[in-house]
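seq:
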Amino acid sequence: MGTDVMARPKGASGKSKAGGGRLDVVLTLKGAPEWKAWVDRLAARDRSTTAGLIDRALTHYAKAIGFDEAPPAR
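struct:
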């Protein structure tokens, strides 16, 4: 008899961050398809992912309003 292999549930990639723990979903945004396309083009222009773009944008905004606490590692 063979060994059955179960498929991983959708969205359960099993990927871990460098520190060993799983990454949580932190942010979900809804927007028009045109806005999403704009964000995708901006991320591509930045040679980044959408998540990386948002991470840097939030860090920049935090500094701009005087919030000097560094973000923890993702």
